[in-house]
Amino acid sequence: MKIAVKLAFDERGALRLLNWLAQENAILVRAQPDLPLLYDSGVVYRRETDETWCDYLNMLAQGHEDCDGLAAARAGELIAKGIGALRPGDAGYEDARRAAPATIPAEVMLTTRSTPDQPGLYHCIVRYRVGRRWHRDD
Fold first, then answer.
1. pTM over 0.70, yes/no
2. What distance in Å separates the CA atoms of residue 1 and residue 83, rounded to the nearest whole number?
């Protein structure tokens, strides 16, 4: 199913939608535990001319996404799989390995290069918390 939504430029609104997508991705990943993790899936970054955000399943089928879809996928799998979504070398891995959380609080975060009155280039990353520390995944 394809749903199109046209929005006036609003970073906070876009961020709310991306974090909703991250929560939906967490539901999908929990429901299908055999799905590959994002970094094991072969999905690659590809810049888009328009903004089309895919859920986890459609992203896997498509084989590519840009930063917003990739960030929503990564946040979703951290929420769904907890320590199972982290690998040695990932920020917070050692703390998570000791605590073994079943879920890791995660969200899509924007880094922007714009002025308040004019849209500009933006980039989505993931922010997640292990214990008391926040980490970023780009």
1. yes
2. 32
